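As promised in the previous annual report, we have extended the structural survey to additional targets. Below is the entry for Gamma-glutamyl-hercynylcysteine sulfoxide hydrolase.
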Amino acid sequence: MCRHLAYLGPEEPLGRLLLEPGHSLYRQSWAPRRQRYGTVNADGFGVGWYAEADPVPARYRRMGPIWADPSFADLARVVRSGALLAAVRDATEGCAAGEASAAPFAAGRWLFSHNGAVAGWPRSVAELARALPPAELLSLEARTDSAIVWALVLNRLRAGDEGAQALADTVLEVAAAAPDSRLNLLLTDGRTITATAWGDTLWYLSQPGRYTVVASEPYDDDPQWQEVPDRTLLAATPTDVLLTPLKDLHDDLASAPHEEPST
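The corresponding structure token record, generated without further manual editing, is:
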């Protein structure tokens, strides 16, 4: 569940992207047009954005619905950014409530969001969690499926993986451990956007050389919006969007030669 959006391009007021469009993320909190699971995204919201010359993003998150926070409209009217990630939340059953459970999650220069649900959580991913460093488990922001998925992604980023590899490997690993999970992930460092379509809708709007928007669903009726096929990895900058079937990535990993241990 949830709806999310990331943007790279010229500086814009946050409200121009999140509040003003006819089918904005704000409106999607109570009237999404293409959401396959759930109908209302009122369990929290958040936005993270980047200021010029500062690689570490700021965040504004709340535990209630976005429409109930008049302060956000003021903030969104005056704060400008050329890179952001925002989300409205429909909580997975059994997951913790509260501001800490609202995306985007953050670490260093990274912002992350998860649209979906991990099937059978938490038992289904207990073995994956055991592979994480204890300090990372103890540092989880919230007791949610999204938080553990973020920990798995972040562990790979800290090990040196690029964003696309970290998302792809995490999705394939979680999907193997918890079949029927919905794993639409969204990641940005303020310069690139990486996303997966796995079980729910994902779209992008791109004007090459100017801007790129990646979102759960279009925020307006511009005919240039393109739907991302299911089980696909998206990697984007303001100048380019690349789509790669996740199945191909899985096959490439499975067929890669493995060195035999020396004797």
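The two ends are 50 Å apart (CA to CA). The chain has eight helices and 13 strands. These points will be discussed at the next consortium meeting with the crystallography subgroup.
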